[in-house]
Amino acid sequence: HYYITNNLRWTMDQMNKLVFLITFCILTICIQANLSGGGFGNHYTWISWNEAKTVASQQNKPIMVILHKSWCGACKRLKPLVAGSKAMLKLSDKFVMVNAEDNEDPSNDPSFSIDGGYIPRIIFMDPNGNVRPEFLNKRRTEKFKYFYPSSDEIIPTMEEVLTNFAHKEEL
To answer: Which residue among 2, 33, 103, 135 has the highest number of C-beta atoms inside a 10 angstrom radius?
Structure first.
């Protein structure tokens, strides 16, 4: 059998090869996204949500949880900004970093819906796993206080969290 497409003749074998190639490319992209921190960068040390509280307690580090969805446009815009931020990468060593995409996130826990269920949201927690709602995006006044459109807005909150915990350790 032949298929006519834009004056080209394709055999069934050629069509099957084309479908295989397209499928292979899509799977490769999906696998690469998972290996690269879901787009947020594979150079960060990402910990699963299930392990985060234990690791934070053992290492006495605060937790930073990025709540996002694979289909979210704002999430997609944030990913390369976080992945490319050297300053944020440096600060991340002092945190337990959780990249919670789609159903991996703790969004069933009402303490993560401080001012709504929008995405992306970045929530900070203390080393004991308690949500710390006072650590928010200071550029937001009333709505979406845990929304960060860029790494430049995340970094000041990360620094504030570290300063807060450094003072508590000294006491």
So the answer is: 135
User: Which tens digits make up the pLDDT trace of 19-32?
Assistant: 666 665 554 444 44
How much is the pTM?
0.75
Rounded to whole angstroms, the Cα distance separating 109 from 117 reads 11
Which value, to the nearest 10 degrees, does the dihedral of the CA atoms of residues 151, 39, 75, 107 take? -100
Is-contact 42 33, C-beta < 8 A? Answer: no
**SS3 labels along the chain:** CEEEECCEEEEHHHHHHHHHHHHHHHHHHHHHHHHCHHHCCCCCCECCHHHHHHHHHHHCCCEEEEEECCCCHHHHHHHHHHHCCHHHHHHHCCCEEEEEEHHHCCCCCHHHCCCCCCCCEEEEECCCCCECCCCCCCCCCCCCCCCCCCHHHHHHHHHHHHHHHHHHHHC
